[in-house]
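The protein record passed on for reference:
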Amino acid sequence: MGRKGRRKCVLVCLLALTVLAWSMVEKASQSEAVAVTKLVSWGTRGDLVKQTQEKLRQLGYYPDTPDGIYGTKTYEAIRQFQADNGLKVDGIAGSDTLSRLGISIGTGTSGVGETGTSDYDEDLYLLASIIHGEARGEPYEGQVAVGAVVLNRVASPDFPNTIAEVIYQPGAFDAVEDKQFYLTPNETALNAARDALNGWDPTNGALYYWNPVTATSRWIWSIPITTTIGRHVFGVK
């Protein structure tokens, strides 16, 4: 190979190394961004959650003593803070929300919650929580069906358009009222939530379900029953 050929080879190698380096930097930045969005979201816990709660408490959004556990009061406080400050109202304290609170994220932050729940995105965890609270002990298909009802409501113009808003709609789910929603979902509920999110709907579009043995609402019986799975019946009006 001549001198010109060797020089060309060196230039090509340098260009390839430059492209590779930029690619690695971009991927690292993307990973850090993803980690930040999961640092303070439903089910996570740790010092950053506690710090966020303290900032929210100082501003009058969080009513309790900070405990480092992201639950419903943290969710509601973050959403209200986001709404008041022109931020995306999603209940996730990502980089924009944390920055507005005056909290900086160092490069050493791992983004993994101490409970491990930040391995799941918020929608999956919320859906698994309502499935666990409402339908644990039901056959697996029945647990997927409960998740499907939540997603069918999200898609319906008659209900809110996010999983969180559907679940927290006043009076919508007994498990939210009696606090069973706040139990840690098991692996079965997480799998059922994944299957529902992936499109499995054993109810064929149902918007409601109830246990005919324990239901006390007269109104619910006006819903035509289309499917029965386990102890629940499902229907759409």
Summary: The CA atoms of residues 134 and 175 lie 6 Å apart. The radius of gyration is 23 Å. Residues 23-38, 107-120 have pLDDT under 50 and may be disordered. DSSP finds nine helices and three strands in the chain.
